[in-house]
Amino acid sequence: MNEGEFFALLGPNGAGKTTTISILTTTLLPTSGSVKIGGYDSKSQSNQVRRQVGIVFQQPSLDLNLTAEENVRFHAILYGLYPWRPAYRLMPAGYQARFKELSEILGLKAEMFKPVKRLSGGMKRKLEIVRSLMHRPKVLFLDEPTAGLDADSRRNLWEYLKEIREKTGATVFLTTHYLEEAEEADTICIIDGGKIVSFGSPEDIKKDLVEEYLLVTPSDPVALTRELESLRLAFKPGREFKVQLNGTSVHSVLKSIDTPLTSVRTHLPTLEDAYIAVLKKPDGSD
Q: Which of 95, 167, 168, 240 has the fewest CB atoms in 10 Å of its CB?
C-alpha cells in the first residue's frame, strides 16, 4: 500500500480478513513471510508498528460506563501521548486541540461529553474512529466498520472518512461485506481460503472478470443479425440481442448500427458482479 491509499480487502466469511488485519497490527504473529508498516517490521519492531496504526475493530470496544471523551482520553494516555489527568479541562492544550479537531470533523462535537451508552450505533462507530486517530496514525485499519449500521449511518460515516483521508493523508485499509463501500478504493484484494484470488483496481477487476454488453431490441431481427455480422460484433440473438462491447464504447457501437432499435439497455459490471465471479471459480485462479 502507498501513503494515502484506500485499500479494500474482500472475501467471504472465514476467508482470513480479520486474521490478516490481526497480523498487520501485530496482535498475531505471521507463520511465514514478513510484514512492514511505515518501514517497521511487525515482528522485531512491533511497538513502532503500533504507533503507526489506528484500528477500528469489527466488534465495538468502547467502555459504555464512560463518556465519549473519557474513552478517547484514556486511549491517548495508554498510548503515552499525554500524562494522565482526572478531567478534560486539566489535559494539555495539545490534547484538547486534537480532540476538538477530530470531534468536529466527525460531527460529534455535541456528543463528546455524553455517556457512551446514550450514543447511537453510528455515533459509537465515529467515536471509535476519533479514538483511533488521536495519535495521527499513518495507516487506519477498519474491520467491518459499518457492520450493524443503517444505510443512512453508513453513508454519513463514509462521508466523514473521505474527509479524514483528505485532511490527514492517512492510508485506509478496509474490510467489508458491503461491496459498494469498496467501489471507491484505489486497490482491491479479494481473498478466499487465505489465498489471494484477485488483485487490482476496481476497474481492472471488473474488466477482467465480467462482461460489458448491450441489450437491444430490433424492429427487424434478421436485418440486425446481418448488420452485426458485417460489423464483426460478437452477439447473441433473441428477443433482446446481447451485443458484446469488448472495450468499445456504447456510443460507437450504437452509432454503427443502422437497424431501428425499439429498446436499448447497457449492462456495465459492478464490483459485486466481479466479486461473485471470482468466488465461483473452482480453482481460485485469476
A: 167
Residue 208 has what pLDDT? 62
Place of cell 514478513: 34
* Residue 227 · residue 258 · CB < 8 Å: yes
115 shares a domain with 39: yes
Which triple of cell numbers denotes residue 21? Answer: 488485519
In a domain, 285, yes or no: no
What's the CA dihedral at 118, 122, 125, 130 to 10 degrees? -80
First to last CA, the chain: 20
Going by C-beta distance under 8 Å and a sequence separation of 6 or more, which residues neighbour residue 163?
105
Separation of CA 180 from chain center: 8
Tell me, yes or no, whether 179 and 220 share the same domain.
Answer: no
Which amino acid, one-letter code, is at 204?
D
Cell numbers found for residue 48: 513502532
Residues of the chain with pLDDT under 70: 208-211, 281-286
Q: Is residue 42 part of a domain?
A: yes
Q: Which amino acid is at 43?
A: K
The grid cell for 114 is 455524553
SS3 readout for the chain: CCCCCEEEEECCCCCCHHHHHHHHCCCCCCCCCCCEECCEECCCCHHHHHHHEEEECCCCCCCCCCEHHHHHHHHHHHCCCCCCCCCHHHCCHHHHHHHHHHHHHCCCCCCCCCEHHHCCHHHHHHHHHHHHHCCCCCEEEEECCCCCCCHHHHHHHHHHHHHHHHHHCCEEEEECCCHHHHCCCCEEEEEECCEEEEEECHHHHHHHHCCCEEEEEECCHHHHHHHHHHCCCCEECCCCEEEECCCCCHHHHHHHCCCCEEEEEEECCCHHHHHHHHHHCCCCCC
- The structure's pTM equals 0.74
